[in-house]
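Q: Joint fold for the lines below.
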Amino acid sequence: MLGITLNRQSAAPLKRQLYAQLKDAVTSGMLKSGEAMLSTRELSRDLGVSRNTVGEAYDMLIAEGYLLSRQGAPTRVAEGLRLEDRASGAPVKARPVQAVKFSFRTGRPDLRQFPRKLWLQAMRRSSENLAAEYYGYTGPQGLDALREEIAGWLFRTRGLNAAAEDIFITAGATHALNLACVVLGLSGRSILMEDPCHSGMLQTFRDRSCRIVPVPVDGHGMQTERLDGAPDIAAVYVTPSHQFPLGGILSAPRRAALIRFARENDAYIIEDDYDSEFRYGGAPVSPLVAADPLRVIYVGTFSKVLFPALRIGYAVVPRPLQKRWRVLRTHDDVQNPIFEQAALAEFMRARQLDSHIRKMRKLYGARRAVLLEALRASFGGAAALGDAAGLHLAVHFPGMIIDESFAKRCRAAGIDVTPVEAHCIDKGRHGSELLLGYGHLEPDEIRAAVLALREFMDLDK
Amino acid sequence: MLGITLNRQSAAPLKRQLYAQLKDAVTSGMLKSGEAMLSTRELSRDLGVSRNTVGEAYDMLIAEGYLLSRQGAPTRVAEGLRLEDRASGAPVKARPVQAVKFSFRTGRPDLRQFPRKLWLQAMRRSSENLAAEYYGYTGPQGLDALREEIAGWLFRTRGLNAAAEDIFITAGATHALNLACVVLGLSGRSILMEDPCHSGMLQTFRDRSCRIVPVPVDGHGMQTERLDGAPDIAAVYVTPSHQFPLGGILSAPRRAALIRFARENDAYIIEDDYDSEFRYGGAPVSPLVAADPLRVIYVGTFSKVLFPALRIGYAVVPRPLQKRWRVLRTHDDVQNPIFEQAALAEFMRARQLDSHIRKMRKLYGARRAVLLEALRASFGGAAALGDAAGLHLAVHFPGMIIDESFAKRCRAAGIDVTPVEAHCIDKGRHGSELLLGYGHLEPDEIRAAVLALREFMDLDK
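A: Joint structure:
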């Protein structure tokens, strides 16, 4: 209880000082309702005063109702005594969330379907066997067992032959991009990005002082024909297996062109494979990194296939960059915490990740079909863009103006949507396109949301 | 099993292609010994081929001993078939650790004493009650319940009156410093640092392109008399409650001088309170932030009081900086994972953190006494520096040269020590001082390590 400072030179007796300070602590809320007080023995030892002094101060507070004492139980703080005073100004709170009736937000897996019981079992199994040394620093590259599992899984699901030694665990994809920025020394240099691209990732590169060079996107991903020699190009950021947000797959000739371009400019490619697990048909897409492992940093995350609060992603890092990656990670945030890593390794070992993905792929695929059908019924002329994959759909509404102002009005009507324009670097080229996230919605919710959108658009004209 | 790509135009029958590719996967180790194969039904569906095709390929592999089949169990990969080929060069491995017989490393809590059972119970209790929504994005500031607990704890242990709204959870102290760098815009600007200071933290600021301005340290912390107007000073980094590594407490007049200096230069103070929990006597030290909450970012971590692999720290952030902190954290690594946060909140709520610290303070205090006694017995003239606190001791050995070369020879003899010089910015001023971490060592280990050090020094002359 170091919150208490007693002044032995003061005229006020120690028990009086102690009483006053404890009372302040209760009314200011620093001692909380129901909180157990230290015993008189403990507090007297901490403060270096007699046990009597503490006992008398407690007795006064009990008499006045600040503390509650019960036979055989610790003395506790009474309820409802906190006075509100925020003299230093109101805290800056996050904006209150508007009432959302229909949420088409993107990048949201259906958490209701996540097998929490199985996950908690994996967590229990893995944590109970964790020796004391795993509570210490376990290294910036991540848990060996987890990297082994990821290597096997990348092979099973993507045909990617990456060794566990080349895999670096991160705190998610965004974090991996940050580390890539530093390892590649991107600050102040140029990075080519798809336009549109994920606005959050764009901001990550901007926060790292990268110069952003947009390259337009069509139905087959980044238009590599339009790559040209911006000055000092250090890297290209792409989402080749499922372009975010438009959904195209980077075509084979463009893949070749991109790698040629990177070689000619001595630039690295950052390949973000953010949700390639969820493909509902068609040939599997082989990652770019397989074509040139020395020039591509391959980034993935478990936020979408498992759940966002897990905060585990990974990067396959070219060998010449690995030592620097380890050192920089150590000075960035040291390492991932241990328990999620161990639990995920166990979850993967037991093949529960595979069966969860299998189940969700079926479920999301069905939801996509429901959304397409509902759109057809309500909006005859609307056209879905991109490949059959992922957790959201990009839709073109001919003749409509879909911009930030549209989205604002739409949200005010309780429907949360994202215009493609929100993800554009150069504005004005995707002004009739809307993103509809469906992964987290049940079929009935999808149908109701599309009807609400139709109704809103009719009234909004 | 997307690792398999079948070519329907090829002259080779599909079952043959499948057989060959699965065989490669086994010998390359991508399919691991003992791993369960998909069922023929599952794999045929994945590949879009008949179940027969898969069955025949499996049969060939079983016949040749690549796969093992047993009645009523999944077909598995046989043992010992992996061929080693690392055509892309040997992986860059972390350096092999030298055999350490006596480790005086600093910053290592005694993990053997950590109540793992109680922790796992807290983790179980907290995770079992976690609703589905907590598996989603829960916000860049951290779990409410945890911030409430930290607020109460800061008050109980340091007398610090910080509201939960002003507390920001981070992935440890290093991570908090990184965020502070960005929030304060330190890149390219000057930061004053204690000299010596923690070399890891120094590197963190260097990685963020800060200009480092050293300020010498004595037995009472940073020599504020020697602060002067380096150009463009944006921040001062200090460890006022227990200077790292020399152990002094920043004196009251220097605290006042430091805050005056910061105000005059419109600079922020970053206060790192890295192990103030472990004080073995003397008056409690009140944090600097209490004196000027608008000018100080107060940083703490649970790595030392609990365990390093937890990766939870916190910052008390001045209100004008809070919005920016939230946005930047989102684009840095989004948020902390959920399970450690929930477990720590529960561990604190049950007052297990308090009792753990109480127990460890007693234990570490006793070990410190053992180390002092052993040093007295073996090295009459050696003098301990700093305040009675923390997990390590800084010791002055009159007349000795203690530099990187000394440490190297010492480590070669199996004794891991750190010269104070390793943490110096301007070298050459602390060349007779050694850091001896004792927190993780039992009394007998301490005595044996001191004897070994004495013996090494005698031979090394």
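Q: Anything notable?
A: Chain B is about 40% helix and 15% strand. Residues 40 and 55 of chain B are 6 Å apart (CA to CA).
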